Amino acid sequence: MKISTVEDERVHVLNNNSNVWSIIRDIVDTGTQEDAFYICDIGDIVQKHKIWKSAFPRVQPHYAVKCNDSLTVIEVLAALGTSFDCASKGEINKVLEIGVDPNRIIFANPAKPISHIRHAADVGVNTMTFDNEVELHKVKNLFPDAKMVIRIRCDAKVSQCPLGMKFGCNAETEAPHLLRVASELGLDVVGVSFHVGSGCGEPDVFRKAIALSRQIFDYAESLGYRFNLLDLGGGYPGDHSNSIFEIAEIINCALEDYFPDPSVHVIAEPGRFYVSSAYTLACNVHSIRGVATKDPVTEAPSTHYMYYINDGVYGSFNCVLYDHQHVVGLPLKEYPHSKLHSSSIWGPTCDGLDQVVEETLLPELHVGDWLIFENMGAYTLPVASPFNGFPVPKVHVVANEDIWMLLKDILPLTEDHFVIGTTPASLVKNMNVDRETDWVLPDLPITITLPICGDGTIIEEHVLEYVDVCPVAH
């Protein structure tokens, strides 16, 4: 039997004294939860937006939907006034369905399927990127009124996920040719975009990319174009331990030096910045294997502990394989003064590649303990699968009272998006429950006595019995 309620999609409003870790502890302490689960704190997303507006006063964020396409995330960001970077027809539809204006979307995929270009034309999403000549001819035939943005390549030497090997034309050798072709086709090219790489670790590369963009702006002017859009792409870190202010200082100075004209509209495509730290994953240790080994220094006998948890690289931790993410498991239970042991963390599937952490130091854990993984909101759930029959973790969305008061009346959010409640009851009651034969039913009949009047002087007895019912007719 599967139990699910409408409230699964709503935001649970908690008192201001709650935090993510206390919420996880409350849920775990009920003893009713075994599956892995997420807590998403939308207050963290709101705080990130405040940081962005402070750090980049001139740059309009277009959230990269591919990073985390949660409807709640999209609705919150739409309410905050962000725009959106979509890579497909499906992502475009998801954003439009909550009432976002098509002008707040950039179709930032340089290689688009034909049907997706047609769809963009039909729904009025008219700004899109390109980096090759074939794409220009496709757009000419399918959407000649589109506003095109040329994507150039400028790779960071250090990035979590490089993109330049797939997208972006050479600014000096290919871009001038493509602009000439676009001019000959009569296409409206309006600006330049770049992407230095997701999770950029080289802030100075943004200045180099902005300087290259200036060269493209100037060359386009010689062809009769008047560019008015600069897209700074993505690459902005979003973990708790990282800051964007070093990148912001470099970008703001470069914009002042190369694009002082305020008529040039500057946008960016942050993804992980907005959602990475908003999601925290709780996983249950369901099995443990001790492997005899030797201390690498003293060669004394030792034990390496292999901890098996109920989420892995085929689920949320696909980010380890595809996003090159380094995850850290933190015990929920405190083990003060405990010795740390060589340990590894493994997913639940039968695949030997399903390793979450190769080597870490942990206290000796026990079956039923929980490991907590922070910064799990980016490039995790959109790629997760139920391989081997293990479910994708459920997400419980929470906000404190201040965030509720801020957002509850800003469209597309309404009061109906929120439910007032305390932990753990308001969260536990709507968790998915999958049970086939382990339900324990009480002996019947049961007689209960209910007062009819407020003073309890008149009572009525009700006898509860099991009855057979037919399926409800539709």
From TrEMBL:
One of its GO terms (cellular component) is cytoplasm. InterPro entries: Ala_racemase/Decarboxylase_C (IPR009006), De-COase2_C (IPR022643), De-COase2_N (IPR022644), De-COase2_pyr-phos_BS (IPR022653), Orn/DAP/Arg_de-COase (IPR000183), Orn_de-COase (IPR002433), PLP-binding_barrel (IPR029066). It is an enzyme of class 4 (lyase). Its cofactor is pyridoxal 5'-phosphate. Residues 38-377 form the Orn/DAP/Arg decarboxylase 2 C-terminal domain. Gene3D superfamilies: Alanine racemase, Lyase, Ornithine Decarboxylase, Chain A, domain 1. This is ornithine decarboxylase.
